[in-house]
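Contributing new complexes? Match this layout with iron/sulfur cluster.
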Amino acid sequence: MDALMLLGDEALAQGALDAGISGFYAYPGTPSTEIMEYVQRSKQAEGIHRTWSSNEKTAMESAIGMSFAGKRTMAMMKHVGLNVAADPFMNSAFTGANGGLLVAVADDPSMHSSQNEQDSRFYGKFAMIPILEPSNQQECYDMAFYGFELSEKYKVPVLIRLTTRLSHSRAGVVRRAPISQNGLKTPDDLFQFMLLPAIARKKYQHLIELQNDFVCESAKSPFNSFQFEAKDLSKGIICTGLAYNYLNEVFQGKEIPYPVVKICQYPLPNEQIHELYNKCDSLLILEEGMPLVEEQLKGLAFTGMKPIHGRLDGTLTRDGELNPNKVAKALGLPDTYGKPIPAVVTGRPPMLCVGCPHSDSYLALNEALTEYGRGHVFSDIGCYTLGFMPPYNAINSCVDMGASITMAKGAADSGHFPAIAVIGDSTFAHSGLTGLLDCIFDKSNVVIVILDNSTTGMTGGQDYTAFGKLEDICAGLGVEKEHIRVFVPFKKNFPEMVQIYKEEIAYNGVSVIIPRRECVQTLKRKHKMEG
Ligand SMILES: Cc1ncc(C[n+]2csc(CCOP(=O)(O)OP(=O)(O)O)c2C)c(N)n1
Ligand code: SF4
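Output block (do not edit by hand):
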């Protein structure tokens, strides 16, 4: 088969396509977005489900449904998306899978474009399911085939964990001959997906029984390797996922003098880890993200234990992503890797694009709020979060997707006035609707500004499910029609915009204001495509 130059995300997508997948479900989020974007561009994917879901929970549940029907499927998200999907994700470990079910989660250590740093391997361990963590783009591709097989062999979902550098860097990937999709086939046991307590207890027992099998699979996994032959036994190295790549980069093709255990499939293959521990005077654990393996190995600190070095004892930083330089230093090698970053690419804070509609919306909101001082605007996550920066200084919170509306509600419940929520249109579809329903139910005194730029701007301009329906949705949920106000955020409309903000702040109840103007970047792209 031909070789392709693919991002890690794209390699996983291509692998899933070649491995006979029938449906992709995802909500955008860096660094996972390119998985779905690749599939949406792919001719091979025609006829396969590949539209964006409202959020990660709906994506995960739809994937479980497709698995129920016997087909291979994958849910994709960024790490914080797995928090949103955690309920169906955890329960899917109990229901198990019918058709192969993969959950691809891209973590963002160092928080390049995320509100926190978390390690999805903990979720996989928590759910007690197998985890695959590719160390390069070829493994991203191969793991799609392998993951589906593993999922169907044990009838469990399988977590694939990527990290930013792998998701977003390119390498040659050799393809295999594509295989056809599964036929429709409902589960043999029609109670399989019925998590009533009496059934769920049995399911949990079954999941517990499978744990040993999962360890055996890890021990013979083509993605794990155990190189025990090295002469220098002062150190044994365990590296996981991408860290294996960094280790090899440090030695630049030369022989690594220490025994190395490469872990790209979990749960940990205990026997081989013990063997390494017994052989060597100390261990160095290189893992991207949190010290999951290191903590497991350290357990309780019994006296006489051999030294185990890693992120917990300061050999490596406790936070942030790894790189070959950090790995070299942890090995006691000189700190000579890489060239300094040129000044031109440093110190450039993100800002709203020139002409961004959010900019006009914020300037008018600031004007309307002058008499109240600062501390009234609960924001959310999207391009509009940049309204935090000067010259706007317009917002006071950013916690998780959807939190703007519910935080404004909580503040309003306490008597805080005015309480304004600012939320993007895609974020509103993702997780704003239920918060709005809470406000309507309690007749909360809030003004909710839904910034409608017709796209999911922050992640590169994807479609979203509530497009063209915002007023209808708000009215349908119970917002009074006269308190659903729409304006076009342009400088020339400034007095009208300020007036609308002021009127709705003065109204004691739930108001929705929709500033509507397309994102200038998507507009530019459309014009370019139209030639
Ligand atoms: C749970 C979760 N999923 C996905 C993301 C990634 N993400 C951040 S903001 C955003 C949506 C932004 O779109 P929108 O609300 O329309 O605002 P815009 O960027 O267009 O201004 C997404 C998908 C995230 N931070 N958290
Ligand atoms: S991408 Fe669009 S929404 Fe985001 S800052 Fe630029 S113009 Fe505004």
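Reviewers usually confirm one structural detail per submission. For this one: The chain has a mean pLDDT of 95.
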